[in-house]
């Protein structure tokens, strides 16, 4: 007999968060599970009024009292920002605002001089942490944004809670961009469809059937969807980012929401996917590697694989698909 599940979806972190668990659990367990996410949203989301991060931002230039979790979170972010060679920076909000991502209809591309000026505010190394007194300070004019990691941090917290409650079979899907799979012997893996970021364009494959490039040719296949490939994960997280779904349009040209802290301009790469055991770390890495060349992407994955399980792919601006060494092991083509 096929195992039955129940699913509930709620809107948090500007995303539809879906929790799937075995049918044997009572419906009221969802309130307890979603409360874990709501707590993270309330305490650590930069968009939540009164959160620790919101207070840090509103008191830029001064130390702010925070809890232990905020400090641990920031320390881990800073650690991975160093590994990602400065292409991941949670103080990037001034650049995001400059580009007009919070305007209804941005009309002009920022001037190069403006970008260079605002870039001076973007530097995670200026975040000061006082562990003795549990205080954090950013420089005046700086602003932390949590959008690149907060929902994945929340689903990791929920995953931990589920395991504590003895839930060994579950899926937490945060808007499709962060997915955590909890598996046991009965349900050993989760299949995920990885979509083509430019669905109207054709996928070029090598002799083994592996996708290698998104071409400029229009897709003429018979399938309803022109997907890249399927992957299987087990007690792992899949994090993905692309420039296709979230962008601004200025004078007919689209600019994606992932901005390089180094150049000050939106990345021209198309999509990235990272598999790790920790959704929080996976989201940080997927954002930081999005801005990299294929060579540096591979270098950093190899470096990180010495201390953690990690594989991924990167679709660059020219449509070419670059895989880490063992990512093909996850693929079902």
State the end-to-end distance: 28 Å
Widest beta sheet: strand line-up: 1-2-6-7-12-15-16-17
Task: Give the CATH H-level superfamily of the largest domain.
Answer: ApbE-like domains
- Which structural category do the helix and sheet elements fall into? alpha+beta
Count of DSSP E strands?
A: 18
Count, helices:
8
> Which CATH architecture of the largest domain?
Roll
Shape: globular
CATH class of the largest domain: Alpha Beta
Proportion in β-strands: 25-35%
Order of helices and strands: EEHHEHHHEEHEEEEEEEEEEHHEEE
> What's the main sheet like?
8 strands, antiparallel
**Helicity, as a percent range:** 25-40%
What does this structure look like?
There is one protein chain. With 333 residues, the chain is α+β, with helices and mostly antiparallel strands. It folds into 2 domains: 52-137, Orthogonal Bundle (T-fold); 150-330, T-fold (Roll), CATH 3.10.520. Helix content is 28%, strand content 26%. It has helices spanning 29-44, 52-58, 68-83, 93-99, 112-119, 150-164, 279-290, 294-304; strands spanning 5-12, 15-22, 64-65, 128-130, 135-137, 170-174, 178-182, 190-194, 201-205, 211-218, 229-233, 237-242, 247-250, 253-256, 271-276, 311-315, 321-323, 331-332. The strands form 5 sheets. The chain has an 8-stranded antiparallel beta sheet, covered by helices on one side. It has a 3-stranded antiparallel beta sheet with strand order 3-5-4, with helices on one face. A 3-stranded antiparallel beta sheet has the order 8-11-18, with no helix packed on it. The longest helix has 16 residues, at 29-44. The two termini are 28 Å apart.
């Amino acid at each position: 007999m096929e195992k039955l599940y129940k699913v509930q979806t709620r809107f948090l972190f500007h995303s539809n968060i879906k929790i799937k668990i075995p049918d044997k659990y009572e419906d009221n367990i969802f309130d307890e599970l979603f409360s874990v996410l709501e707590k993270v949203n309330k305490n650590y989301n930069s968009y939540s009024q009164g959160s620790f991060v919101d207070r840090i931002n509103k008191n830029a230039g001064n130390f702010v009292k925070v809890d232990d979790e905020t400090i641990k979170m920031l320390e881990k972010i800073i650690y991975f920002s160093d590994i990602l060679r400065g292409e991941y920076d949670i103080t990037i909000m001034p650049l995001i605002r400059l580009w007009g991502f919070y305007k209804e209809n941005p009309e002009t591309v920022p001037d190069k001089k403006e970008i260079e000026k605002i870039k001076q505010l973007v530097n995670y190394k200026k975040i000061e942490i006082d562990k003795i007194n549990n205080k954090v300070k950013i420089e005046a004019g700086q602003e932390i944004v949590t959008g690149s990691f907060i929902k994945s941090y929340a689903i990791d917290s929920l995953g931990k809670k589920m395991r504590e409650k003895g839930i060994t079979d579950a899926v937490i899907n945060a808007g499709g961009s962060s997915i955590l799979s909890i598996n046991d012997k009965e349900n050993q893996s989760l299949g995920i469809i990885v979509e083509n970021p430019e669905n109207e364009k054709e996928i070029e494959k090598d002799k083994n059937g592996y996708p290698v490039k998104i071409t400029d040719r229009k897709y003429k296949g018979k399938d309803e969807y022109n997907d890249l490939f399927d992957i299987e994960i087990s007690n792992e997280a899949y994090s993905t980012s692309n420039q296709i779904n979230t962008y601004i349009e200025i004078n007919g040209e689209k600019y994606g929401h992932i901005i390089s802290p180094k150049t000050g301009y939106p990345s021209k790469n198309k999509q990235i996917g990272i598999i790790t055991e920790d959704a929080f770390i996976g989201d940080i890495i997927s954002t930081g590697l999005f801005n990299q060349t294929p060579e540096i992407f591979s270098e950093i994955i190899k470096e990180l694989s010495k201390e953690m399980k990690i594989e991924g792919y990167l679709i660059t601006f020219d449509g070419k698909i670059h895989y880490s060494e063992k990512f093909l092991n996850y693929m079902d083509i």
